[in-house]
Structure prediction request, 312 residues.
Amino acid sequence: MVRDTTLRSLHHIEWAAPRHQSIAAAAWDLLSEATKEKLTRMLAGSSLAQVSTWADEIKRGHPQDAESIKFQADPRNKGNASWHFVDLPLGCSGYGAPESTHFTRPDDIVHMLGEAIRAARERTGSRFSPFNALRLIVHLVGDIHQPLHIACGYLRPTANTFEIVQSPKEAQADNLNSDHGGNRLLLPNRLNLHEYWDGHVGDDNSSSETKARLTAAARVKRTTDATSDPGSWPSDWATQSLLAARTAYESLKVSPLTQDTTAANSSESEKGIKVAWANGEESYKAQCLPVVRERLATGAKNLAMVLGVIYS
Prediction:
């Protein structure tokens, strides 16, 4: 099976910046005053929302502050673009389940978020400085709650199109390629499925009304047991997003290729695989909106929880 993380990293694979910022802002409102004081000293004039996009920016080498330069100088951080996702087949029962282990990686989002949490708690002996660990946590907690950063379909070529395979057993046995978190699936509006979920399904996250609703939803959200081991939380969070990702694929149908050739050899398929909404876009949005809102609220609550444990 070819799981090209370099290719995946070159695609648009980012929870849109306003959503990262909204999750961070809502999490901030849930923190205790003592935790806010500690974080304020660490942030040194920045806000939690402002640092929430650093991990996407560092992929492109944009930040040039001293801590970013230190991060980029460490050869172990060269492949950081692949830290933002894992491509579990939709049919997996959970991250870490026996059928999922073939698809996980030592540098996938669960492992790297766990490493950042450990670095922030231990403060020494890590490749991540305390500030960089904080910036990674704020961002990766957001990413891990975006369903298509965790799970996707695998593609089986047929006579003139592709079948989206959800079974991990079939994906592994038939050596299938993934759809790269929906990046290879092109919707009728010319967006790919991943970027559609990143910022086009759901509310306008820049509005004050949306931000207030997100904070209120996060405040009452029941989430991970704060007394359990934080090292296990990323795996649990990934499993929740895996289950949510199935909604993204419901009522999608793959369109036939227009060229008279096999899907396996079609140059058309290299540009992306066209899919359509079985019942129209508005019906699809109505189906997915509750999931997007739930993931954002849960992400904010879980971010507040992990920051509260680390910086209490």
Remarks:
- The chain has 14 helices and eight strands.
